[in-house]
Amino acid sequence: MPAVNLRATIQYKPPANTTVQAALDTFRSPQWVGYMLRHIVPFLKASSGAKLHVLADLPKLDRCDSDCVICMGAMDDGAIELPCGHHFHTNCIDAWLRLRNTCPTCRYQFEKQVSGTYAIRSINTALCLDGVRSADVDDVLGRSLDGSALSAIVHVTMVPAATLPPMERYPCVMNAAIVRGPAPTTNAVRSPSAKRSRPHEATPPVPKHTKLC
């Protein structure tokens, strides 16, 4: 099973009187691992598509008398037949199964592209701030965030637990940085401590495994 790479834009609302440096420290903490798990695991369970080889293994028909229930169009130019017996345009069912692992008509289930037990390998979080200049780093780190909701761009890498040696806890590399503006750019301003990747062990209440199936 391949690694899973996710990118999410989240709204982060820090406690009152939190500084930028304190927010970066939070993004490098085990508690942040738990926070991200609570957000990404339900998403993966709900939205994981079928394995990519599914369509290649399905029988193709030159013609089908019924209409495709996805686009409601006639299937005069060919169709795909699912194991449950339902038929769809090739392009329609391809797009459908990339997002879901069930038949649109009867909910017949295919094996998911992402399934099994995973461990979080790394979380890279970028806090988006306006009005940041490279010469401002020390001043920015001491700035109070005033409890305002801010945007953060988070990249998460998860690896199959079967590829890792048996351990009670798995190290998770946590990185945090500041980027200019409402979206990440190539010009990132990092704190000195953020330049060095440092591993944190996922400790309770963070589980050592995340099961996605």
UniProtKB/TrEMBL annotation:
<dbReference type="InterPro" id="IPR001841">
    <property type="entry name" value="Znf_RING"/>
</dbReference>
<keyword id="KW-0472">Membrane</keyword>
<dbReference type="GO" id="GO:0061630">
    <property type="term" value="F:ubiquitin protein ligase activity"/>
</dbReference>
<feature type="region of interest" description="Disordered">
    <location>
        <begin position="183"/>
        <end position="213"/>
    </location>
</feature>
<protein>
    <recommendedName>
        <fullName>RING-type E3 ubiquitin transferase</fullName>
        <ecNumber>2.3.2.27</ecNumber>
    </recommendedName>
</protein>
<keyword id="KW-0812">Transmembrane</keyword>
<dbReference type="Pfam" id="PF13639">
    <property type="entry name" value="zf-RING_2"/>
</dbReference>
<dbReference type="GO" id="GO:0016567">
    <property type="term" value="P:protein ubiquitination"/>
</dbReference>
<keyword id="KW-0862">Zinc</keyword>
<keyword id="KW-0833">Ubl conjugation pathway</keyword>
<dbReference type="InterPro" id="IPR013083">
    <property type="entry name" value="Znf_RING/FYVE/PHD"/>
</dbReference>
<dbReference type="GO" id="GO:0006511">
    <property type="term" value="P:ubiquitin-dependent protein catabolic process"/>
</dbReference>
<dbReference type="GO" id="GO:0008270">
    <property type="term" value="F:zinc ion binding"/>
</dbReference>
<dbReference type="GO" id="GO:0016020">
    <property type="term" value="C:membrane"/>
</dbReference>
<dbReference type="InterPro" id="IPR011016">
    <property type="entry name" value="Znf_RING-CH"/>
</dbReference>
<keyword id="KW-0479">Metal-binding</keyword>
<keyword id="KW-1133">Transmembrane helix</keyword>
<keyword id="KW-0863">Zinc-finger</keyword>
<feature type="domain" description="RING-type">
    <location>
        <begin position="68"/>
        <end position="107"/>
    </location>
</feature>
<keyword id="KW-0808">Transferase</keyword>
